[in-house]
């Protein structure tokens, strides 16, 4: 079993998804009760945009291994990419019932909730604010119905320090949502693992080093900060410099672009 796992991992490192799937097929045939093989195969199908087969493996996991948090996470990830945000929301909630410390699930849950609100006609700026401030989706809807947030606060924060910041590449497994080259030209970043509170002023000073900041919304109860830059270059530079670093007492922060990029256009 270990040899098959290593072989599949090597195929994945090379981004040979079809080759990896062949390995996982063999592994599942030999070890049909090993849930991680279904998860790995589902991920490969997902990265190939074969959502039908990816979802089939995810649904098998959630049915046959109901306490396996990764199975529910995978199902939510696939459903979100298919635009089925309400179903994805239920999946990420289930992940957090099983593992309330899963920061990736916290971030994904917030993202799909933002998408749900956007589908109701609100801007992403409004939806992001409402989700950050509310205790749940229903309360966020109520805040928006009451006009709690304008479409745009119009604020742009600039650094008082003109010192340039060096930009360093980040190594590791490729993920387009963590690619500092910013292929989708996203102006926004999610910053996770923010377990220690940081003041709004300090956050503005930190993130404005990399570009003009339009807004920053923090929810330390959910361990994240959401930063909107005016230009995608700011988001890219922040990711290059800060990914995996310690930030204001927070160890090993995690930075990702949202699944559906908010651009400056």
UniProtKB/TrEMBL annotation:
Domain RRM per the UniProt entry, residue ranges: 187-260
Cited SUPFAM superfamilies: RNA-binding domain, RBD, TPR-like
TPR repeats: 69-102
Keywords: Repeat, RNA-binding, TPR repeat
Transmembrane annotation, as ranges: none
Any GO MF annotation of the entry: RNA binding
Stored InterPro entries: Nucleotide-bd_a/b_plait_sf (IPR012677), RBD_domain_sf (IPR035979), RRM_dom (IPR000504), TPR-like_helical_dom_sf (IPR011990), TPR_2 (IPR013105), TPR_rpt (IPR019734)
Position of the signal peptide: none
Protein name: Stress-induced-phosphoprotein 1
Organism expressing this protein natively: Frankliniella fusca
């Amino acid at each position: 079993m270990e040899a098959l796992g290593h072989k599949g991992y090597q195929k994945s490192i090379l981004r040979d998804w079809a080759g990896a799937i062949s390995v996982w097929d063999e592994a599942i045939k030999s070890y049909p009760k090993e849930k991680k093989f279904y998860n790995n195969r589902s991920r490969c199908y997902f990265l190939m945009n074969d959502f039908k087969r990816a979802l089939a493996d995810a649904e098998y996991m959630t049915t046959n291994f109901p306490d396996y948090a990764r199975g529910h996470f995978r199902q939510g990830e696939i459903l979100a990419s298919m635009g089925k945000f309400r179903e994805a929301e239920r999946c990420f909630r289930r992940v957090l019932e099983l593992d309330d410390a899963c920061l990736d699930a916290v971030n994904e849950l917030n993202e799909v909730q933002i998408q749900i609100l956007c589908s109701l006609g609100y801007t992403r700026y409004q939806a992001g604010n409402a989700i950050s401030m509310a205790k749940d989706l229903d309360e966020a809807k109520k805040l928006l119905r009451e006009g709690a947030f304008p479409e745009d606060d119009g604020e742009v924060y600039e650094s008082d320090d003109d010192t340039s910041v060096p930009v360093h590449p980040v190594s590791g497994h490729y993920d387009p949502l963590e690619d500092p080259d910013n292929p989708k030209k996203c102006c926004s970043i999610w910053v996770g693992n923010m377990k220690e509170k940081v003041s709004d002023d300090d956050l503005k000073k930190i993130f404005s080093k990399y570009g003009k900041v339009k807004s920053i919304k923090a929810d330390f109860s959910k361990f994240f900060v959401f930063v909107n830059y005016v230009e995608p270059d700011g988001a890219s530079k922040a990711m290059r410099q800060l990914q995996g670093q310690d930030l204001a007492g927070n160890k090993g922060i995690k930075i990702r672009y949202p699944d559906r990029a908010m651009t400056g256009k």
